[in-house]
Amino acid sequence: MTSPATPTTAVSVLAPAKVNLILRILDRRPDGFHNLWSLMQTVRLEDTVSVRLSDEHEEIRLHCDAPGLAVDHTNLVYRAAAAALRRSGRSVGLTIALGKRIPMGAGLGGGSSDAAATILALNQLLNLGWTVKDMMEVGQALGSDVPFFFTAPSAFVSGRGEQVAPVRLVGSKWVVLVNPGFPVETKWAYHRLSSTRAAVRPLSPAQAALAGAAEVSWNTVLPLMENDFETPVFDAHPILRQIRTRLLAEGAEAALLSGSGATVFGLFADEATAVRAAASFQYDTALTVFVVPVGSGPLACRV
Ligand SMILES: C[C@@](CO)(OP(=O)(O)O)[C@H](O)COP(=O)(O)OP(=O)(O)OC[C@H]1O[C@@H](n2ccc(N)nc2=O)[C@H](O)[C@@H]1O
Ligand SMILES: Nc1ncnc2c1ncn2[C@@H]1O[C@H](COP(=O)(O)OP(=O)(O)O)[C@@H](O)[C@H]1O
Q1: Does residue 5 register a pLDDT over 70?
Q2: ipTM for the predicted complex
Q3: Its biological function (predicted)?
């Protein structure tokens, strides 16, 4: 005789950081957002979102180990849980634990990834039966970067961030992430970019040819890597340009600002070279340095 299945009451999701391998910021739209074109890639630096059903009727309680990050309705995890419950029509109590490893205001999409992980966890925990498209709809109202995380590990992203096309990046790379210890606010970076550049530069023919491919090789991607935020953000924070120069001198195949900053990352062919490059930053105590491989799988629940 088989015993009835025990209902799941807790789900954990690892929420990965992202880097933008290519980030082109195009025209400003009537809604104030910019159209963009990006090749985004997850990396194995992860927050943890653990969601548990609780007895507190209709209450969301969020706990977080990062001092200085609010656990109220301003936190993207709280907002994602509230939005998912609203759409599902379910009224349950939730206790959520957020473990932060991803630096904040870092261009690594930590808050957006946490939001996507929360929506995925609730879909599983409450048996909502949502498709990826359903989850993206809930997520895109919370932040432009959220939909990407449902197409992890790699995707072309366009529109405001809501149009995502998964792509297979063949092979692997090691990544050195160098965070300078201060944040760059996304809104500030977009404003500074659009108020300092003379004109919007279209995608290069090679970038345009890449868009929408189902599979690409790193050798194709590496020479096409660029980020339109580098000039305005590096001009305001010259240390970031120096970090990129150092990563290249230490053997990075490419090095770039991630998103609107402030993290600069380098791509390496192997772990040993990446570890050696990371060690060259060890005397600068203001910096936080991570050595991780690129992501290789989708966002997933662990019961
Ligand atoms: C720049 C990127 C590149 O991946 O990442 P980050 O550096 O933030 O990680 C994203 O476009 C950031 O996405 P996200 O961080 O979700 O931004 P949102 O909360 O939606 O928007 C914050 C602000 O950025 C500006 N914004 C954002 C996205 C977009 N396509 N156009 C914009 O102009 C708007 O001024 C908006 O008020
Ligand atoms: N769960 C969360 N994790 C990180 N930041 C959050 C979260 N919820 C709200 N925020 C706010 O969003 C801001 C930017 O978030 P983050 O995703 O870390 O940076 P970025 O947009 O540069 O990738 C933070 O400075 C913080 O005020």
Answers
A1: no
A2: 0.98
A3: Catalyzes the phosphorylation of the position 2 hydroxy group of 4-diphosphocytidyl-2C-methyl-D-erythritol.
